[in-house]
Amino acid sequence: MGQCTLLSHLGLACCLLLLLGGSESLGSQGKQRGPWEEDQSAVTEAAPWARARYEAVKKHLGSVGALSKQYWQYLACKVSQEGCEEEGKKKAGPSPGWSLPLVGQDYLEILSAWYCSFGKCCETGDCRIVNNITGLEMDLNRQLHGQHLAKDVVIQAVRRFLQSPQPEKALVLSFHGWSGTGKNFVARMVASHLYRDGLRSECVRVFIALFHFPHHKYVDSYKVQLEKQISETVQLCKQSLFIFDEAEKLHFGLLDAIKPFVAHDGNKGQVDYRRSIFIFLSNIGGNTINEVALDFWRAGRAREEISLEFLEQRLRLELLQPAENGYAHSHLLEENLIDVFVPFLPLEYHHVKLCARDAFLARGLPYTEAALDEVARMMVFVPKEEKLFSAQGCKSVSQRINYFLP
User: Residue 238 contacts by C-beta under 8 Å, 6 or more apart in sequence?
Assistant: First the structure.
């Protein structure tokens, strides 16, 4: 099927039906008027010019089926590079009836251009990049709970980057917070709204520290593999996305291997890395973020009053601590190559209820307030005295609603 999904092909098929509707409706109208024999006898009795007109129309209707197939093959070749060899053979040899380039090519050029206008078509014509920032903002507003800072910072950073005609460097975002607060969720949302195929896109690469780079003694081999995959992805796509999960467990040598791709001189020869986005997900800084949120709560202040500037300073200090994390030893921090540190706040009881509601809706299941409360009460809340924040965020909520299945 090439790079186009079945859904995309169905949309193209509908467009073709509209394009060819006039011709095929003419044939159906002829059938409604009566048998061809009756029409033919009427034309035989008519003047010679009418008889010639009838033969031309009949010839046209007889070739509609074959012409429809040619239209489809030509459009599939234009948009998804599918069936191009067969289309080339048809153009090379004589074809009966109408010639596709003479009758339909102009219309199909317009149609393929219209189709690609919904996304940025790569040179291969598979429309992998969509950059739907409006959709990203709407979905984050609707589905990301308790994260006013992350929501605003991610939208603003990605929008500015994509709107810049010539970025100075690749965009580097570093997500920090406890497990279950939404870091992976936001990274997936960014991928699904910037690329048609989301995390499955050829333009998106996801690396999990302990899965892809488990042994520090092989770090030199990992560096070669990582550099190769980043280079190949950027060469394939004009805009690429790289996600590094459990980034605090990456060896500092791997982080330094990424440095040339995110530096300010990211234009190396014919490959321009400045159109890439790098997202690091880390639990480092989670305790610092939680302490700030708890202090605001104890002072009677709303968590929405917490500012990015207030948290970012504390995050940077913790990341620079000489602990067992790659950040502290890498050049990414020293040379200020991370553009934005994105804090994810701890989730409270009512946020967990919202996550439970979303989980019920995602499965098409009915729910009650009592059911949402019961799911939330299953979670462990800390600290012991206040029991304010969910220790797992919303991470296991979707599994817990299994208890409510009939």
Answer: 120, 122, 129, 275
